[in-house]
Amino acid sequence: MEGLRDGIDAVDAQIVRLLDERARLAHRIGEVKLAKGLPAYVPSRERKVMERVVELGEGDFPKAGLEAVFREIISASISLEAPLKVAYLGPESTFTHEAARRAFGASVELEPEATVADVFARVERGEANHGVVPVENSMEGAVTHTLDELMGSPLRICGEIYLPISQSLLSREGSLEGISKVYSHPMGLAQAGSWLRRELPHAALEEAESTAEAARLASEERGAASVGSALAADHYGLRVLATDIQDARTNATRFIVLGRTWAGPTGRDKTSVVFSFKNRPGGLRDALSAFAEEGIDLRRIESRPSRRRAWTYVFFADFAGHPEDEGVRRALAKLEEHTTYLTLIGAYPEVRTPGGPEGAS
Fold it and tell me: What is the CATH T-level fold of the domain 83-164+253-261, as seen in this structure?
């Protein structure tokens, strides 16, 4: 045993030396980026690093563990290149907080904001480098506040995160028998509704502004519990009495990363646009034919009131490819022929949808 532990100590020392060497290289890259006015966060480069790491990992160390380790290595390296502030829809210990940590790691400065509009405003004013906000849920649909902000903002989508939503029951109590009240955000209560009715039929259900606020309330009240993330349990010192209590096992939320520019191509990308089409019979069909003619996979389309004139609408669309791809260029040119308004609001590395069909983003 001691000999094996000595071997681990020697490997750990080598890992630390290599991390120091990587840090020196990252610092020099930061100097070059600063001189050229380049951003510290480059999603396309991160995609390539992660893919290469997974390809190299053919030994006993789990690939998921490699990704988690390198997520933090990259986060620390970015912090050496330049101070990075990321605004997210708060408060702390919410699922958006968890998504921001997954995207940027623990070494950047994460700053919670009260509303989606506040996140956009912080990034637009240059008070934060990036923002993270939810854009859609697999069970509840689009987050309309985010779509509305995207319509009028100069910011661009430069990344996406898919987060499986695992709701837990959190409490100071040691068992379900002591629970007489359950707090959560209305969506959390709805997502865990069947479980709550079955396991806690006599408990009062109380709405809170967020799952984090619900956890805070539960931490201060005897006989109370909250529905939320395990991250909130750690933050407020609560016990996790039950996990995966949401009704749908495939429940996931998609979050977007906001920046001033979209990401470069990686070979597996997604592009987002917003447009309105000419008001004539078959207008939407004609607009969407631009994608079919170029063989481009349309991932999602969503309509919203234009907020410019009553009973007029704009459409948000996500599709496979990058604006630098020749086929995408042709599709956008054809789309423009059939629209009265067209804006490219983002391009970013595509992430596979948890629980989605094969080939889905």
Answer: D-Maltodextrin-Binding Protein; domain 2 (3.40.190)
Domain 1-82 has CATH 1.20.59.10: yes
Cβ-proximal residues to 124 (8 Å cutoff; 6+ apart), any chain: 153, 154, 155
State yes or no: is 291 an active-site residue.
no
Q: Strands, E, within the chain: which ranges?
A: 85-89, 109-113, 130-137, 141-142, 156-164, 168-171, 181-184, 204-207, 224-228, 239-242, 252-259, 269-277, 298-305, 313-320, 339-349
What does the pLDDT profile of the chain (361 residues) look like in tens digits?
888 888 888 988 999 999 889 889 888 888 888 888 888 888 888 888 888 888 888 888 888 888 888 888 888 888 877 788 999 998 888 889 989 998 888 888 999 998 999 999 999 999 999 999 999 887 778 888 899 999 889 999 999 999 888 899 999 988 898 899 999 988 889 889 999 999 999 999 999 988 888 999 999 999 999 998 888 888 899 999 999 898 877 778 899 999 999 999 998 999 999 998 877 777 788 888 889 899 999 999 998 887 777 667 889 999 999 999 999 999 999 998 888 889 999 999 998 765 444 344 4
Q: 343 an active-site residue?
A: no
Domain 168-242, CATH among 3.40.50.2300, 1.10.8.420, 3.40.190.10, 3.30.450.40: 3.40.190.10
Catalytic residue among 95, 104, 255, 291: 255
Q: Is the pTM value of this prediction over 0.70? A: yes
Choice among 253, 266, 271, 339 that is catalytic:
253
